[in-house]
Amino acid sequence: MRILQIRFKNLNSLAGEWQIDLTDPAYISDGIFAITGPTGAGKSTLLDAICLALYGRTPRQSRVNASQNEVMSRQTGECFAEVLFETPQGRWRCHWSQHRSRKQADGALQQPKHEIVDADADKVLHTKLKDVADTIERLTGMDFDRFTRSMLLAQGGFAAFLQADADARAPILEQITGTSIYSDISVAVHRRRGEERQRLDHLKAAQSGLQLLDEEEEATLSRQLAELSEQVQQRSNVIGQQQTLLNWRQQLDRESRQAAQLKQQWHELEQAQQAFAPQQQQLEQALRAEALRPAYEPLRQRRGDLQRAQEQLDPLQAGLPALQDAADAALARQQQAQAHLQQAEAELERQQPLLRKLQEQDWKLREQQAQVAQLSARLPAELLEGSAPDPATLEAAIERDEQALHAALAGSTRVQIQQKQDQIRSRGEQLGELRNRVQQADELKQAQQEAAHKRAALKPEQDRIQQSLEQQHAEESRLQQEQLDLQKLQRLAERIADLEQQRHELEPGKPCPLCGSEQHPWRSEQPPQLTEEKARLQRLEQQLTALSSELQALAVQQARLEQDEKGLLQQEADNSQRLEALQPPIQHCLQLLALDTCPAPNEIEQVQQAARQQWGELRDRLAEIDRLEQALKQQRAEQERVQQRLALDAARTDLTQLQQQRQALSPEPDTAAFEQRLQQAIRQARQAQEQAQAAAIEQQNSLNRRQQQISDLKRHMTDLNTEMAQMQQAFDAALAQSQFADEQTLQAALLPEASLKTLQQAADRLKADAARLQALQEQCQSSLQLLQQQALTEQSSAELTAALEQLTSEHGLLLEKRGSLQQTLNINTERKAQFGAQQQAIDAQQRELERWDTLHALIGSADGKKFRNFAQGLTFELMIGHANRQLQKMSDRYLLVRDAEQPLELNVIDNYQAGEIRSTKNLSGGESFLISLALALGLSGMASRNVCVDSLFLDEGFGTLDEEALETALDTLSGLQQEGKLIGVISHVQALKDRIATRIEVQPLSGGRSRISGPGCVALSG
C-alpha cells in the first residue's frame, strides 16, 4: 500500500483546505522527507488526516461521531480528510467528512459521512460506514490497529518499553504488538469455566426438585385405577339399559299425545268443510260458467266497442259546420294579404331610380365631409378660425433662415464639426492620462529615493548591534568557561567529602584498597571548604542569566532591523516594478498625441487649456447651427399648415354645393332610412300574407281531418255490427246447450278472476289438509301399536328419569376418582422422563465442564496473565528476530536477545565488547534510539505480514542521537527507498532538518492556526 495524495480541511490547527501530493518528483527521488515544525504546530495532524480518511478515527481520538469531534478546527463548521492510495488491485480514493448544522461554527454536529471510490473508474463503491471499513480492510489487508503498527511507527512506545520494569513491560508490549486478545482469551476461558460449572449446578438442582413415586406406590395406584375402570364400565352398562327404557317410555308418550292432537285436528277440519259448503257450491257454478266465457266475453267486448264508437261520432258530426265556416273566412283573409303585398312591391320598384341617385349623392357628401374633417384635424385650433396667413410672407422668412444657416456652416457639415469636436475631446483625455502617468512616475521615484535613504540610515544601527552581539557572545563564552571550572572544582570537593568515611577507615602500613599505597597523608586532613567558589558560581549564573537576556534583546533588535531592511528593499523593488509598468502606457499616450518626447506637466496643462478653448468655440458654433435649423424647421411647418388651411376652405365650399344638390333631389334627410321604410312595408305585407296563408291551410286541414274521422268511425261501426251478429249467433248456440236458462243467469254465475282464484285455493287447502291428516293418523296409529306391543316397563317417565340421574351421578364420581389416579400416574411418568433427560443433560454438561477445566488448567486465569505471558513470549521472540534484521542494517555492534530467566526482559549483546551481554536500561540515549528504531521497523514488518507497505511515517525520537548515530539512522531509513518505500520523519530537531532536503514545514501563525509548505503542498482555500 502506498499513499499518493492527502487532502484535508479544518483539522486541528491547520484551518482551511490543504493538499499534499506525495507523487511529486522530490519525494520520488529522495525516498525520505521530514515533517518539521515547532512543538504543537500540527505536524501529527497530517497523520490524523490519513487515519481519519481511511478509518474515521485517529490514534489520539478513538471515536469521532455526532456527539464528539476534537479534530475539527475551532470556529469552523465543517472538516474532511481524503486520501488517494494505491494497492496491487488499483488506485482508490477514501473520503471522510463531518459538518455542523448549517455548516456554522455554533451548529450541532451531524453524523459523519464516509465513502470509498474506485479512482481509476471514478465509481463510488460504498457510502455506509461499516461497508467502507470492511472494504478498506480488504483492500489494504490492515485494520486500524495493524495500520498504526505498520505505517505509523511511534518511537515513544518502544522507548517506554525499554525503560520499564518487568511488571510494567507486559501491558506496554501488549499495546505495541496488539496481543491484548490473548489476555481476553485467558479471561474468557476462566469466565466460561465458571459459567459451565454454574450451568451444571443448575441442572443438578433442577433434577433434585423432581419428586417421583416409589415402585410400591406406583403399583398400588395402578391396581386402584384398574378396579375403578371396571366399575366405571359396569355402571356405564346399567346406565345404557336405563336410558333404553326411558327412551321407550318417552316415545310412547309422544305417540299417544300426537294421536290425540290428530283426532282434534280432524274434527276441526270437518267443521271447516261444513262452513265452506255454500262457497263450494258457488265455486262449482262459477266453474261451469267459465266454460261459456270464451264465447260470451268477446260478444260483450264488441257491444262496448260499438257503444264507445257511437259516443265519439255524435260530437264530431255536431262540430263539422263551424269548421267549414272558419275555413272559408281564413281563405278570404289570405287573398286580401296577397293584394297588400303586391302593392308594397310595386311602390319599391317605382322608387328605385330615385334611391340610386340619392345613394350616389350621399356617398359624395360623406367623402367630402371626411376630407374636411381630416384637414381640420391636422390644423391647430388658432388656424381653424379667421383668415389664413400670407404664403408669400412665409416664403420670404424661410429664404432668410436658409441663408443664415449656410453662413454658420461655413462650408462644413454638422458631422464634420462634431468629428472635429470629438477629436479635440479625445486629445484632451489623452493629455489628462499622460499627466496622471507622469505624476505617478514622479511620486514613485520620490518614494524610491526615500526608501534608499532610510535603508542607508539603518546600516550604522545594524553595525552597532552586531558589534554589541560579538562583545556579549565573547563575554558569555568567558563566563561559561569560568562556570565550568568552578563546577569541576565543586564536584571534586563533593567527591572528596564523599570519601571522608573511607579515609578515616585507612590504617597506617596497610595498603589502600583503591590505589594500593601504604602511606595515607590525607587521612587526618580536613576536606577543603569551597564557600567562596560557590558564591562565585552563583554570581556567575546570575551574570549569565542577565547576559542571556541582553543577548535575546539584541537578537530581537537585530531581527527587527533586518526585517525593516527587507521591507525597504521589497519597497524599492516594488517601486521599480511599478515604474517599469508605467513606461508602456506613457509611450502609448505619446504615440497617440504624436509627441517625440514627454513634455513637462505645466506644458501639458497649457496644451489642455488650448484644446478646451477650441472645443468651446466649436460647441457655441454647433449651438447656433442648432438654433437656425430649429427656426427653419418651424417656418417650414408653418408654411405647410397654411397650405392645409387653404385646402380646408376649398373643401368646405365643395361640401356646401353638394348639400344643396342633395336637398334638391329629395327632402328625405336619410336615404337609407327611406329605403328601409319601403323594405319594411314589403316585409310586413309578406309576413301578413304568409300568416294568413298558414291559417287558411290549417283551417282546411282541420276540416279535412274532421271529415276523415267521421268517415273512419262510420266504417268501423259497420265492421263491429257485422262481427257482433256472428258472435251473438255462436253465443246463443252455446247457451242453449248449457245448464243456464239465459244470458242473465250466466252473467250472475260468472265470478271475477281474483274471487274465483281465492275460492279455488280455499277448496284446495281443505282437500290437502284432509289428505295430510288421514296419512298422519294412519302412521301414528301404526307406531303406537308397535310400541304398545313391546311393553318394556310399567314405570313412568318421571320414575325412569330419576333413576337415570342417580346412576349418572354415581358414574361421574367414579370417573373423577379414576381421572385423579390417572393424572397422578401420568405426572409420575412425565417426571420419570424428565429425570432421565435431566440426567443425560447433567452427564453432557459434566463432560463439557471437564473440557473447559482442561483448557483452564492450560491458559485460563482471572487476570488473563497465564495465556498472555505465554503468547507475549512468542510474539516478543518474533519481534526480536525482525528487529535484529533491521538493527544489522544500522550497526553490526548490537544484537538483541531475550533474558534466559525472565522472558520479558530484553538484553543487548555488544559485539565490540567481546560479546558482552548488557541490559537495555544501561544504553545511552543514542543507543536506545537505534534499538527503538529497529524494534519499530521490525514490528512494521511483522504487522504488515503479506501486505506490501510502501509508505512509512516515523514520529519523533531523533533528539538523543549524536551526529554519527543520526547519520546511521538516516542512512538506514534512506536505504528503504531501494525497497520502493517512502519514509516520512516527524521531528523538530534542527540537525534533522539540515540533513533531509525534502521537507514539509508546519509553520505556526497567530490565533492558534498553522500553515504548511513544501513540495506538492497547495492551499486550496484560506
What does this structure look like?
With 1022 residues, this protein is α+β, with helices and mostly antiparallel strands. It has six domains: 1-151 and 949-1022, 3-Layer(aba) Sandwich (Rossmann fold), CATH 3.40.50.300; 168-200 and 864-944, no CATH class; 215-275 and 771-833; 319-375 and 689-719; 379-411 and 603-631 and 643-665, no CATH class; 414-471 and 494-599. The protein has 25 helices and 16 strands. A hairpin with a 2-residue loop joins strand 1 (2-11) and strand 2. The longest helix has 85 residues, at 414-498. The chain is flat. GO terms for molecular function: ATP hydrolysis activity; exonuclease activity.
Q: What is the fold named in CATH at topology level of the largest domain?
A: Rossmann fold
Poorly predicted runs of 5 or more residues: none
Number of helices: 25
Would you identify the CATH H-level superfamily of the largest domain? P-loop containing nucleotide triphosphate hydrolases
Assign an overall shape. flat
Largest sheet: 7 strands, antiparallel
Determine the N-to-C terminus distance.
31 Å
| CATH class wording of the largest domain | Alpha Beta
Could you say which structural class the secondary elements and strand pairing correspond to? Answer: alpha+beta
CATH architecture of the largest domain: 3-Layer(aba) Sandwich
Rounded Rg: 70 Å
In total, the number of strands is 16
Beta-strand portion reads 5-15%
| Quaternary | single chain
Number of domains: 6
* Helix content class: over 70%
Taking all residues together, what is the mean pLDDT? 79
Coiled coil: 245-272, 327-378, 530-564, 618-790
Keywords: Coiled coil, Exonuclease, Hydrolase, Nuclease
Domain Rad50/SbcC-type AAA: 6-270
InterPro entries: P-loop_NTPase (IPR027417), Rad50/SbcC_AAA (IPR038729)
